[in-house]
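EI: anyone free to look at a 375-residue chain?
SC: sure, send it
EI:
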Amino acid sequence: MEHYLDNSATTKVSKAAAEKAFELMCENYGNASSLHSLGIKAETELENSRKIIARFLGCESDEIYFTSGGTEANNTAVFGAVKALKRRGNKIVTSSIEHSSVLEAMKELENQGFEVIYLSPDKNGIIPLDKIKNAVDNKTILVSIMTVNNETGSINDVTKIRKIVSNNNSPALIHTDAVQAFGKIKINAKKSGVDLMTISAHKIHGPKGIGALYIRKGKRISPLHFGGEQEKKLRPGTESVPLIGSFGTAVSELEIEKSYEKISALNSYAKGKLSEIEGVSFNSKNDALPYIINISVKGIRSETMLHFLAQNKIYVSSGSACAKGKPSYVLNAMGIDKDVADSSLRISFSKLNTKEDIDFLAKYIKQGLEILVKK
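SC: here you go
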């Protein structure tokens, strides 16, 4: 029996979401841009999903733009905002613990001559508000700070960031990568004050290859691609109606409060079991998102323990899946000792997990410590 605890990397697609994708591939398979009846039916499915997602985010449906996933949405937000506002300034403020799809975009903008300020987190993995206040000025055109960190679960208050930017009389657009937050905590895009928000399907039991970007009405970013009329020309190209329909179905199944209560209980249970094991320490703090626990297992490199657990059909991560085993720049930025960071594991839950998964995890971490640590 498998014990899958790597849900921040991806989740199992729900049966209903998979069935919706199949239906839109094999039955209602029209091109949403076609003017005949099959095309109109496909467009209806697409727009229904847009409405479901918008309702869940507390925004209007015409503020949702579909993309191929979180990486494309982040790139569209970052490059599109800078391209649109470059005449008003040359400065960008972000953090040193953003997802690689934001950090790599920032490096490219530096190559193009933009000034990028990378703010470091505090020891809890949160970006201090006073650092943002000191960094943002009237030449700042973009502020990009993630809502929930994908390695530690630390949570940033983007609503307060909005107030800081406004008080500093900055023209900056505010972007947040909410991929790890969406579907897990309540998010209201309008009330948050952000201008741009990234979400993705495959972290909430939807399919890979589909995400969305929220763009506040009245705000403009420049397109990165050119072609047809789809997504109001911001993201042209034939829409993947099967993936979009499946995304909408996955969102319609979300029960945030019920799932949060269950995951919080699992988180407490897991911390209790793991804290009994000598050699295990916690990198995620108590106020982090309960869906994620980052731990270190003293004396055993992350990759070694990860493979040992996988041999016993227990699946966790050694950090962000996109990093593919590279050392954690997130833990390093938090000031965590290199040896501790090199032995870190990310455990991430979904509504499908049980206490049995945690019991097996604890059992085999303890066994791994006995077998793998050099005597």
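EI: The chain has two domains: 3-11+256-372, 15-252.
SC: 👍
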